[in-house]
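Good morning C.,

I know you're traveling, so I'll keep this short. The sequence:
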Amino acid sequence: MFNTPRRSILFMLGCVSIAFQLSSQSWEEGDGFRSLSASAVSGDSQGFSLIESGRTGLDFTNSLVADRGLRNQILLNGSGVAAGDANGDGLCDLYFCGLDRPNMLFLNHGNWIFKESAIADAILCKDQSSTGAVFADVNGDGSLDLLVTGHQKGVRLFLNEGKGSFIEATKQWGLASTRGSASMTLADVDGNGWLDLYVVNYRNDTMRDLPNGQFDVRLVNGEYRLLSYNGKSADSPDIKGRFTFNRSQGVLENGEPDQLFLNSGRGQFEPVNWQEGHFLDTNENPVETPYDWGLSAMFYDFNGDLAPDLYVCNDFQSPDRIWINLGDGRFKAVDDNRIRQTSLFSMGLDFSDINRDGLSDLFVVDMLSRSHLRRMVQVMDGMAFAQYRDTLLARPQSPRNTLFIQRNNQTFSETARYSGVEASDWSWCPVFLDVDLDGYEDLLITTGHWRDAQNADVSRDLDAMIQAGNYTHAQKLAMRSRFPVLNTPNIAFKNMGNAQFEDNSAAWGFNSTQVSHGMVLADLDNDGDLDIAINCLNAQALLYRNDSSNPRVRVQLKGNRQNTAGIGGLIKVNAPGLPIQTQSIISGGRYLSGDQAVRSFAVQKESDTVTVEINWRNGRRDLYENMSANRLYVFHESKKANPHIAAKAPEPRIKTLFEDVSERLNHRHSDQPYDDFMRQPMLPRKLSSLGPGLAWFDFNQDGWEDLFIGGGKKGKLGVYRNEQGLRFVRQRAKAFEAELPRDQTSIIAWRPDSKDMALLLGQSAYESFQTELPVFNHFSMVTGKMETITNSEGSSTGPMTMADWDGDGDLDLFVGGRVQSGRFPEAPKSLLYRNHNGKFVPALESSQPFKNVGMVSAAIFSDLTGDPLPDLMLACDWGPLYLFENQGGQFVEVNKEVHWSDSLASKISFNSLNKLRGWWTSLTAMDANQDGRLDLVAGNWGRNHERGDSSFQPLRIYYGAASGQGGYPSVESHWDQDRAAFVPSRDWGTLSASLPWLNRAFKTFQTFAHASMEEALQTIPGEFQFLEARCFESIVFLNLESTWKAIPLPDEAQISPLFGIGIGDFNNDGMEDLVGSQNFFGVNALDSRQDAGMGLLLFGNGDGTFTASLPASSGIAIRGEGRGLAVADFDHDGRADFIATQHSGPTKLYRNLEQKVGLAVRLKGPAGNLQAIGAKGRLIYENGSKGPTREWRLGDGYWSQTPNRQVFGFDASPAALEVRWPTGDIQVMKIQKGQKEILITVSP
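The tokens, ready to paste straight into the viewer:
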């Protein structure tokens, strides 16, 4: 790894041949291309060398006079840099923009020597504060022209007359304006061959810098409207759209509209009116003009049709604009379901196929700090932009970086926290680049700001000074100098190849603390890898040489027509031993900047040859085989039909395993909104949105599985009759039509005896302030009688599960306490109930082992020890997994040792279930490795959350001391590696609002930021207790008799909380599979929602591992807050279907389309257990081998129930079915060839 001290860099540059003078080498001509040798640095090195200006002659500082930055804070957004061969000599030149100084064009003379252009006076832009620049051939003559943006100057165009001589053509081309323009991006949006231009506009000034703004707001026709600003009508041209009035937020200032210019090909850019139909909403209606705080944008084909789509990063409340190109230059807004959330302060973006699955992923930077100390001081007002951060919105905004992994159904999952890139401090320009040439693109980010305007202490002091004094406007602006410079290091994240990144900044030498803005990629020494140039505010520009010694190929495109650089071309490189690498040629798109139009690709060995495929913007495809490593290639667009590849045929529609038939049910869960945070302001997340559960049960005994679906407060219990799988009819009986007084949780439908059918309906009590609270309702579907079981301890019911745990022949009940009403995270009561002649009686003595288990999220009875008494498994929130072995009707906690799979063995030290403390959500038991023993599958919160990258260091939540002003307190904390101590996870202001002692003990955000958790809690009266969580993976635990083997479920299960879990052999191959539902939106105001899941289909491999099915193959799309889920063959076609509920959303019903059919099995048990709960079935094949074990349960997964009729898949014709009844008796029933269904009745 190359990590040479800076002072020795110059020596090395003098000794190593690092420059490649094109004039001293000859291009070699090939069939459709030409190439040049490019020898890499010898040895084994990675990373960058910072090349000092004294060595290069590139002496540029983007200076800004302090007074101007105080009077106009927009100028602090900095300036960019453009890369391109301006004079056509084969070497990439650099153009830097200046705010209080002229711009400069530095010509590359080779060997890392740059000189100011002697003929560049026309492009110095001395009369403006320049922001952004891009080199692009806009007139198609083969020379790179120059576009420059600036304050009050919009965008200016300088045409290249050849050899780097420029002439301004701004007015002639129709670009003249006085906008406050920022970044630019160019592409052929309408397919006519010419490069079109999109200009991102911010503002020239802001009311925050202007004195004494006066707003006239009045009630007009029942609505509050802004009528004027400083006496000017709100409809006047310079005021129109600038302000928005909102009663909760007051007056919000908006930015300026962006501008799309279409290149006519006749020497003009024609501006597009927003309302003329070029930009359409999701319903394909013309949009209103958006007045956005635009910072950057990029044209990039992210849906794979070669037409450039558009992503626009907007600051503040302005939503990011995401547009799909319809193929003719018209753009349609992306549906909210495709990208579910965005960053709040979006600065810059880049696209890359980070996981090499052939799909383009997206990364957007924001301003969240990586440092605990900074996060505790850089505090945003809790109400700031609150209506845009609301997690119940269709597309909320969050103040952090966002990473969108594209799924194969053209939707994206946001995984920045899972991937470890959610924070990079005040960031500007992200760039994907394969730094170490291992085939995976790494991530570079520029950071810093001249004033740390988020510093809450300085803001508070200034507010106090202004309120106490009589200052002029100029004096108030001057006070801003008290904000310190935010000189955070630039960041380099190494792509680990699994959609996760690790900080490699220091090792790669990319950690300058200069305030860095625009950044470009360019091959400045023609060695085939890409180097870096960065424009810095009030500091020397940074020039980095890429020192990777690995083989590479560099690709440049030469188009036939006006698009001479092949902008928009997609390049695929297939190199032996590496994944297929894809990159596109872009123009502009960087924050205030534009790259050189070349791309570099990794090759594993110097002797390897690669295949290069080029998909041109116009749809032509060229293929080049046996391309050598360490060469620069220029590929010419073919002028005749391609001899290698015919025109690309449309891809066939992927057949899905499941089809969505939710219209057959037409159910939607409803729940009266409740503000949990008013009751307990320091809750980590809501507790009132945990339902609903559901149950399959044939209530009319016609042989078809009917449905019960839980309701929310003010909603109704959903009861649906199954009409032979064709539709479900809602039942309107009086008992089911009553408005619910509270949320329902788990549902169990059961047969107390042959004459009765009953429902157990769990009752949530978190929203109640009463002391006597219902635990569950017991309702007879035959007599209509309802019995309510209550407690006086405030426990809110979560999971329920039934089994004959006392061995008396009838079914008993366990009720898990989910939360103590209004006292999270205090342990609620969990109880066993004994069935006494159809009445449920608390079994207090038998329940003693569960007294301190905590908040139970899920529970199942399952025979995990093979004896065959039902054991009890619990999954707890802020707690562990518990296994209570049933020893003759008494439950005893057992802790088998846990062994971890190889991927986690070196990272995890906790090795028993009761040490696996997490935010567990769900449980089921299945035979994952086909050994006959039931294994465990435990759903968890996943690692895509605020503390998901904690590297298995514990999180803590403290509770139980004085109440203060905010109800029952709960204080979250996490382990800070720098302090080697637990520290508060929330800032001083947030905590002090509920715990006023902190306000007296600490005087500033900064002093509190340095406090450990112990030091903070010492200031509060009373004794705190704490709970821990450190394991967040959803895991399958293989039951190996004396030990458990823990294997995390695939990544798709780790990117969002896993609630519903269902078991079935969905592809009927004889191995058990899983389906799951995910997501949680009810997070606190400082967090962002978990919405990356869209439902899971995991195919079992028969060895305890699973393979995730891609969404376009599975057909599953559960995008809301998935909750209960249960598998059933509802249409009796021999295939396992399933249903999944969503909190405050539509219930999803999925029908299985697998060609093969399985064997449907019904069991009929004895009088006290007619549903045969606790029985286990297993297919026996003709060769004597056996399939996986399946168990009959009441209460499974997440608050749900599967039916008695279950489908067994098989990979060969089964000979018999073995049933082990709850008594331990074994019964074997022969299966006839071709038999599709079997009923087995317990032997008398």
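Safe travels,
E.
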